[in-house]
Specification:
The chain is α/β, with parallel strands linked by helices. It is built from 11 helices and 11 strands. The chain is globular.
Length: 308
């Protein structure tokens, strides 16, 4: 969240504008009733929500969701990992774009180093959490750290997922010349540690998987820019204000919370969600090159609203 946009004077949402825990449970129940088997809690930063363990407990225990995961910047992970483990959280993904305190501080925009995040990862792993690492790679910014990142996390048994720099939202200063294609990243890593491609773990997996041939784990490549996967996408995103987005690059969110607060019963809420999902036509990643060439850049929801 760039300080020049979201500075001290920015009008953030008030508490009444956000979903309460009971409202979250009802909305999540509607999704589960429509067949959702996996829920990922992301952000913004989900660990800022004090009732997060209660939310995990409700989704995992009360609603019986098979797979409940978390994506976090890791800043509060060391403190909260135990409570999340007790609540039933299954897996954790942590964003680490640099192993250098100075580089991490520049990328997060607030000067926070990475040491505390790495301690959080160690704490989560010690509790038995499977941990994956997300790293957004930018040419000329942090791409020189790719070998160091691979070495550090493969030595600790964590899968590193390297993500092409995407034009999410409107404030991340995206430009095509800072995108390193996933194929180039794979070539750079394979020159040091030979790799072999692995089959997807499930249909619609967004990361292309590669095993280290020395059997010391694997990496993943997410290539939304150079190799879009819109045709097999099955992810919906619910923002903290109850807006439903059917694409990471969407401009429009559908007001599920408004539907609930207008008095919808569970059946009406479920039908509202189903209509939104059945009517989706999102293909931004497939259409990106054509739109940009035609000068048709459009406003998109910010990553801080809907996570990854």
């Amino acid at each position: 969240m760039p300080k020049e946009v979201f500075g001290p004077e920015h009008a953030f949402l008030r508490q009444p504008d956000l979903m309460t825990l009971p409202e979250l449970r009802r909305i999540a129940r509607a999704f589960v009733g429509l067949g959702v088997e996996k829920v990922r809690l992301t952000g913004g930063e989900p660990l800022l929500r004090p009732d997060l363990p209660d939310l995990v407990r409700a989704i995992k225990g009360e609603l019986g969701v098979r797979d409940v995961a978390l994506t976090t910047n890791g800043w509060l992970l060391e403190k909260m990992a135990g409570g999340l483990r007790e609540a039933g959280l299954d897996r954790i993904t942590v964003s680490v774009d640099s192993l250098d305190d100075g580089g991490a501080g520049r990328l997060n925009g607030v000067g926070f180093g990475v040491s505390r995040v790495l301690r959080g990862i160690d704490a989560a792993a010690a509790l038995g959490f499977p941990v994956k690492i997300n790293c957004v790679v930018q040419r000329g910014v942090n791409d020189h750290e790719i070998p160091r990142l691979c070495s550090y996390f493969r030595d600790r048994g964590h899968t590193l997922r390297l993500i092409e720099f995407m034009d999410v939202g409107n404030t991340n200063h995206w430009s095509p010349d800072r995108v390193i294609p996933a194929r180039e990243i794979v070539e750079r890593i394979a020159a040091i540690w030979p790799l072999e491609a692995s089959a997807p773990a499930y249909r619609g997996e967004v990361a292309a998987r590669y095993r280290y041939r020395d059997e010391k784990g694997e990496i993943g490549l997410i290539s939304s820019v150079t190799e879009p996967f819109c045709r097999d996408c099955h992810r919906a995103r619910l923002a903290a204000d109850g807006k439903l987005y059917t694409c990471l690059f969407a401009s429009l969110g559908w007001d599920v919370l408004g539907c609930l607060r207008a008095g919808a019963d569970d059946g009406e809420l479920s039908r509202f969600v189903a209509r939104v999902w059945q009517g989706r036509m999102d293909r931004y990643s497939d259409e990106r090159a054509t739109l940009l060439a035609a000068g048709q850049a459009r406003a998109k929801v910010e990553m801080s609203y809907i996570g990854g």
